[in-house]
């Protein structure tokens, strides 16, 4: 789906069809676009009764093209679980899709917030923190475990340097829960988040919007594109951009500023060949620290640890890449996806280290670092469809390569009151004293190369759907203290895979079970000078997926059991070192339902129970924490969001209202499990009006008001023994024009 809120695909291609002209309703503007062949148009027959097509909404077919078959908040087909256009109901793992319409209705401002209404995902473990796109799935960190993807390719980060994703530039976000190493290589056992970029379409369109909101937030954005004149319908472009100037609830001159521009271009010389160029340039300025000084007893005070005289995380990033696809025949398809990322970061921060007993003076130190990160990712795929007797096969195999290089320099004044003056807590004289900039130390550099070979077969026979994949990876890591001095070299190899079996009990009803494995290399040396062995994990998952025939109502239920072994924990024999001996186990179940009930009327419901505990692990103090719960991960979460658009015959036509509830259950504040975080229930709201209901001349004009945490629930989140404050009530108003 390629337009914002209330964009509806009026045709859903049910079953194998040839390429055809398809009418698509775009915010009450009917245009004509060329639909690619439906998923499953080769020999792999559709057994489940689900949508085999893409509704004319897919930018490309599988291998990074993103979800398709979209109506409102529902999607029928996604590529993340299999790298092929597979109906969600047939994938033997839990998969959720956040569509563009949902992103628009909720006016999502950060990539982490895009999954706030998805089961299995937790985003507030570190409280308010605009620095990183940090998400936990089934209790595991997706960001640091390299589980974030863009257009099917891994987004690599390390240390302090992680590329950020602007949600306005996305068509959808797909969440695959559970290990995905059998197709993607190293990564988080919790799953992956795959962001699909907005891509050109061969239909003229445009959007401009202006937003203003709490904490001096002002933002303008545009999204325009269509076919290029004089190219006979073979070329199309898209240009998306955003500029934001905003403060934060912290005040004290803290910013949440961003500039983003994303040109894209598609060349389609024939129905069988597509080349899409994707690029982006982004500048971000946010606080380098979002923390508040903690008092004993797990309480975040009102003393902000930063200082506007020495603050700010300035990050410049860019990406260029392409997605190429050629169909030798309907049953043999080659794809190649490539991307180059560059990131440059400068961060200055101040910390309050101690407060005197009279609570009049805060002693401080500071830090300054500069990071440079470059990465390249390449994925070559070959997909084939064929029969062996009564068995229909969809096979995909490929070779991919990923490389990154990170350079870091750091400096600090610790315990130097002349360089970092104390803070007067009575006057709170933030920004009134000069703070010296530390001299940067020698550079440290880290590189990683990964090469993987994978093969997958989706076999359908009778009412059974069997998915089997396997992958062999080689990972080479080098760490340098200076550009010419090698500190350590680590080489790892791993074989991972997945096997899943589903059975079509009835059209739109498929129970399934699967087993999958994962691995994650870990940089560093133990007390014996030996390189850490990779963390490994496996998952057993079973569930049932439901798609009510003839409707856009779907649901899924799943139970899971994940064990990750050889994770880094404090070495009990020498607490100055770490050892790759710990383990964690995450068990639980999820329930999800998504429905498009009418144009502009959607519902999503998500419930998660997760119990993640340490196995064979010790705390930093050396005491055992076996059986303790991992801190900061809520045991139970519930989220639902409902929108209602009054029908054309109603006196309130043009009005859309909506609201959401997010319940965050209790969790432990520290890994010793001594104190619990309180539960929190947050409420969001939506009111919007399309002015075409007043007069057709106003077609395309829309006003929208979004409220987040509207009852201003004040709460903190503690994990690893440190507590963070969360965002208070926030309101954003939008004026939008679409054509």
UniProtKB/TrEMBL annotation:
- Please name the InterPro entries in this protein's record: Beta-barrel_TonB, Beta-barrel_TonB_sf, Plug_dom, Plug_dom_sf, TonB-dep_rcpt-like, TonB_sidphr_rcpt
Tell me which UniProt keywords the record has, alphabetically. Answer: Cell outer membrane, Ion transport, Iron, Iron transport, Membrane, Receptor, Signal, TonB box, Transmembrane, Transmembrane beta strand, Transport
Q: Which residues form the TonB-dependent receptor-like beta-barrel domain?
A: 271-710
The answer to keyword Transmembrane applying to this record is: yes
Q: State the residue spans of region: Disordered.
A: 33-67
Q: Where is the TonB-dependent receptor plug domain?
A: 88-192
Xref: Pfam families: Plug, TonB_dep_Rec_b-barrel
Family label: Belongs to the TonB-dependent receptor family.
Q: What is this protein called?
A: Iron complex outermembrane receptor protein
- This chain's source organism reads Methylobacterium goesingense
């Amino acid at each position: 789906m390629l337009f914002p809120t209330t964009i509806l695909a009026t045709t859903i291609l049910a079953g194998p069809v040839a390429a055809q002209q398809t009418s698509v309703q775009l915010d009450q503007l009917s245009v004509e676009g060329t639909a690619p062949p439906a998923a499953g148009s080769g020999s792999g027959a559709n057994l489940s009764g689900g949508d085999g097509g893409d509704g004319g909404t897919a930018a490309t077919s599988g291998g990074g093209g993103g979800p398709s078959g979209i109506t409102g908040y529902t999607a029928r087909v996604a590529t993340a679980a299999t790298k092929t256009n597979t109906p969600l109901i047939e994938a033997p793992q839990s998969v959720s899709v956040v569509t563009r319409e949902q992103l628009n209705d909720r006016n999502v401002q950060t990539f982490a917030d895009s999954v706030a209404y998805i089961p299995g995902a937790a985003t507030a473990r570190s409280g308010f923190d605009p620095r990183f796109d940090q998400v936990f799935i089934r209790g595991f960190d997706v960001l640091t475990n390299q589980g974030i993807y863009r257009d099917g390719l891994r987004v690599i980060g390390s240390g302090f340097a992680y590329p950020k994703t602007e949600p306005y530039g996305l068509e959808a976000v797909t969440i695959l829960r559970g290990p995905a190493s059998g197709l993607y290589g190293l990564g988080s056992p919790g799953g992956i988040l795959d962001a699909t970029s907005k891509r050109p379409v061969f239909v003229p369109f445009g959007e401009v919007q202006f937003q203003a909101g709490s904490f001096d937030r002002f933002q303008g954005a545009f999204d325009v594109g269509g076919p290029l004149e004089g190219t006979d319908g073979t070329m199309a472009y898209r240009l998306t951009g955003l500029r934001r100037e905003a403060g934060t609830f912290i005040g004290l001159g803290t910013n949440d500023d961003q500039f983003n521009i994303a040109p894209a271009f598609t060349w389609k010389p024939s129905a069988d060949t597509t080349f899409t160029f994707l690029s982006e340039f982004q500048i971000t300025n946010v606080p380098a620290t979002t923390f508040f000084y903690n008092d004993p007893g797990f309480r975040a005070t009102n003393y902000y640890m930063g200082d506007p005289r020495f603050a700010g995380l300035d990050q410049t990033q860019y990406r260029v890449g392409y997605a190429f696809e050629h169909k030798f025949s309907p049953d043999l398809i080659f794809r190649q996806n490539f991307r180059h990322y560059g990131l440059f970061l400068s961060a200055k921060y101040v910390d309050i280290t101690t407060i005197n007993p009279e609570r009049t003076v805060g002693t401080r130190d500071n830090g300054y670092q500069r990071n440079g990160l470059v990465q390249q990712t390449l994925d070559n795929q070959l997909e084939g469809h064929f029969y062996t007797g009564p068995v229909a096969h969809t096979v995909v195999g490929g070779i991919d390569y990923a490389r990154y290089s990170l350079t870091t320099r750091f400096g600090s004044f610790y315990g130097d009151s002349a360089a970092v003056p104390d803070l007067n807590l009575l006057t709170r004289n933030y920004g009134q004293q000069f703070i010296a900039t530390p001299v940067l130390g020698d550079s440290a550099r880290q590189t990683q190369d990964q090469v993987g070979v994978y093969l997958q077969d989706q076999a359908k026979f009778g009412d059974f759907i069997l998915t089997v994949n396997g992958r062999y990876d080689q990972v080479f890591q080098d760490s340098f203290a200076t550009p010419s001095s090698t500190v350590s070299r680590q080489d790892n190899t791993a074989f991972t895979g997945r096997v899943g079996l589903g059975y079509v009990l009835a059209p739109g009803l498929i129970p399934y079970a699967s087993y999958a494995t994962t691995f994650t290399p870990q940089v560093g040396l133990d007390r014996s000078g030996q390189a850490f062995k990779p963390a490994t994990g496996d998952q057993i998952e079973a569930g049932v997926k439901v798609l009510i025939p003839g409707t856009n109502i779907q649901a899924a239920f799943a139970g899971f059991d994940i064990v990750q072994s050889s994770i880094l924990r404090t070495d009990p024999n020498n607490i100055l070192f770490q050892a790759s001996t710990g383990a964690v186990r995450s068990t639980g179940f999820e329930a999800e339902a998504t429905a498009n009930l009418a144009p502009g009327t959607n519902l999503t419901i998500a419930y998660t129970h997760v119990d993640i505990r340490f196995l064979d692990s010790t705390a930093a103090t050396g005491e055992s924490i076996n059986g303790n719960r991992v801190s900061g991960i809520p045991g139970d979460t519930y989220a639902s969001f409902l929108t209602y658009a009054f029908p054309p015959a109603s006196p309130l036509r043009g009005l859309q209202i909506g609201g959401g509830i997010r319940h965050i259950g209790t969790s432990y504040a520290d890994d010793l499990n001594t104190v619990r975080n309180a539960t929190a229930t947050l409420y969001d709201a939506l009111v919007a009006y399309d002015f075409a209901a007043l007069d057709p001349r106003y077609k395309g004009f829309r006003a929208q008001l979004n409220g987040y945490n509207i009852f201003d629930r004040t709460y903190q989140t503690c994990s690893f023994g440190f507590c963070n404050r969360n965002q208070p009530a926030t309101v954003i108003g939008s004026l939008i024009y679409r054509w």
